[in-house]
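Onboarding guide, step 5: your first structure request.
Type a short instruction followed by the sequence, for example:

Predict the 3D structure of this protein.
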Amino acid sequence: MFANAIVRTPGKSMIMGLTTAHLGVPDYERALLQHQSYIKALIECGLNVTVMPADEEFPDSTFVEDTALVTPHCAIITNPGAASRKGETAQTREAVSRFYSDIEEISEPGTVEAGDVLMVGGHYYVGLSGRTNRAGADQLIQILESYGMTGSTIELEHVLHLKTGVAYLEHNNLVVSGEFVDKPEFARFNKMVVPDQEAYAANSIWVNETVLVPAGYPVTARKIADLGYAVVEIEMTEFKKLDGGLSCLSLRF
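The system replies with structure tokens like these:
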């Protein structure tokens, strides 16, 4: 169960954020409203939410998940693979230091963005992507092992981040889409397959037996509800324009 979350308010500069989505420029005011709804949902799931202020210097900084991996035993400050995002980690370190005394760090030449890291109990799957390289993954796994946890790597073929296409809902239930449907690494799980037309909804998040699902993907929402979870739908249209999903917007621990 999670007790805390850290989020960062979007800055007006988000309209200049990195994207491959080709969905147009985000509406900043609408993004703020969607972000507030996201925070409200986390609070209603029982979390104490720390809200970091907007940082206009870093357009993508609202996607705070990429800048740290928070585990039950330590926090690991990442080294984002996107050059424009490397400066985001300083404020993340400050925020997580209020909760963690053990803070580790990924260093060059390693790069890691924690959107590529999927936690399943004490094991962490690390996606090798354009943002997370082998050197970074090796460092991350070494740190995890030093705290009694484990990790393994998965080669990504098409998606930006591992959690773009897969989500763990606890209880051995995995939401999968696209290239992850047949990945041998996930063979042992009960897999709920997201239809191709709803692939964006694969980035749903479990929060204390409630699953937050992006609004507008009814097949996925219904399938998750059929597994026995409470489902809350959150509008994410403006963050989708920046390749961002629900998991990207918070650190949950």
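Each response can be followed by summary notes, for example: The first helix runs from residue 28 to 44.
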